[in-house]
Design a protein that fits this description.
By secondary structure, the protein is mostly beta strands. It has one helix at 138-141, and strands spanning 4-6, 15-18, 21-31, 39-46, 52-58, 62-78, 82-87, 93-97, 113-120, 127-128. Strand 6 (62-78) and strand 7 form a beta hairpin.
């Protein structure tokens, strides 16, 4: 069973499941008006589309929490239908479908490092972090031909 969090437990940077998507809480503010019930104004970012949306929730409303981890991985090679990466922490190789990384593939060179956002405890694939970092040693060390 997934861990649930209420609006009282919101923290900046926390990921929640909302409308069958994963959203990152960018900013939130608890509001207790003089009349009526308390509510939480929240700015959330969809990690699939990058859309930033302002949402208002009732105080105490529950959401499924998505645990995340940012890993430094190295792009190794493209094997047709799959793209192979290596986790630089434990040197395990894994592959992702070419379709899931097709937007970033033109910017990757073999042996380049990127940061990948892993969604833990969610039936969702790993996603590219919005601010990927690229280090290319091959282009700097390639000798020029004369």
């Amino acid at each position: 069973m997934a861990e649930t969090v209420t609006t009282n437990q919101f923290r900046n940077g926390m990921h929640i499941q909302l409308d069958d998507s994963v959203w990152r809480i960018m900013d939130f503010q608890h509001v207790k008006p003089g009349k009526g019930g308390a509510f939480v104004r929240t700015r959330v970012k969809n990690i699939d589309s990058g859309a930033v949306v302002d949402r208002t929730f009732r105080a105490g409303e529950k959401f499924a929490r998505i645990h995340t981890e940012v890993k430094e991985v190295q792009y190794l090679y493209d094997s047709g239908d799959e793209v192979v990466f290596m986790d630089t922490g434990n040197y395990e190789q894994f592959s992702l479908s070419r379709d899931s990384v097709s937007d970033a593939l033109p910017y990757l060179e073999p042996s380049s490092s990127v940061q990948m956002l892993w969604l833990l405890g969610c039936n969702c694939p790993a996603r590219w972090r919005s601010r990927s970092r690229r280090r290319s040693r091959a282009s700097a060390e390639t000798p020029s031909r004369t």
